[in-house]
Amino acid sequence: MRFFLFTFISLLIYFPHYAQQTDSLYYEYNLVGEEIISMQFHPFSSLLAIGTTNSHIVVFDVDKKSKVADLYGNNAIFDVKFSPNGDYLAVADASGIIRLWRTGIWRLEAQFKFNNAIVSLAFDTRYEILYAGDSKGNIFVIRYEQGEYKSFRIDDNSLTEIYFCDNIKQLVVGTEVGDVFFFNPKTKISEPFLISDNSPIISISSYQEEIFIYFVSRNGRIRVFDKKTFELSNYITSAAALINTAKSSVLTDFIVLGTESGNLLVYNLYKKRKVKEINYNYSIKTVTISNDMKYLVLAFLGGKIEILDLEVFLKNSIN
User: Fold this and answer.
1) Mind listing the pLDDT tens digit for each residue in 184-200?
2) Alpha-carbon dihedral of residues 272, 161, 285, 27, nearest 10 degrees?
3) Quick one: 34-263 is in which CATH superfamily?
4) pTM given for the model
């Protein structure tokens, strides 16, 4: 009797969290025996590119709940990025190779080999330029249609994340020691912006029409840079709650973060507070949001993917 009473009470405690998860669940997908480390949605469709440590790239159609293509690299796939027009999928791996696949027919159109692991990619929205950051502090400016590239030294430390900010036409670069640089492709000059607390920058993005740029560190700190006033704000400083933060995705004023301890967190950047938290049983490796803000995708340790209905997930969170 005591056992059944304990079980009943446990279910009462657990059920609200379970209900929150299942109500918004759209679809589950598993890559058995693989670890997912990179994901991105196509800009105009429900195609989701998934990169794994096994050099495997899966293209999955979320609307149709079906796999579209299996592609392969040489090593762990550190980053996957669709071009702004959706014509190409760029894939970077730990062996230093970047491949560009033509979407739809999934034909390999271009390949570039570098000496060090390519850790992050970013497309220039104006021209047919792909930027790549490597593990030795170099930036490569690649004109992939012409098969040409130039390299620029940014820092002595490994780069961890790069992001092209269309508003200011500059590349924002994060490093493994928490430094941030602004690289101007036109002048070829890089300028240091902030010195962090020795925690890697794992995500850089912008919101509100790129007026603000936010930086997420692995220790959980979120900082927001106001490009109009040039002020830097520490929006979240509860590092203990966000330790080992996985990749994040931004939704207007909201940022969604996953942690290696299995917590999924939603923060309102404008109000500077947490508005939702769900605890899972598995480490969250990376998260992404579709461009039409229809889906939130979570990749867990062990190759499990949960695709959530974003509107349902955020219900009662936006206040």
Assistant:
1) 988 888 888 876 668 88
2) 80
3) YVTN repeat-like/Quinoprotein amine dehydrogenase (2.130.10.10)
4) 0.88
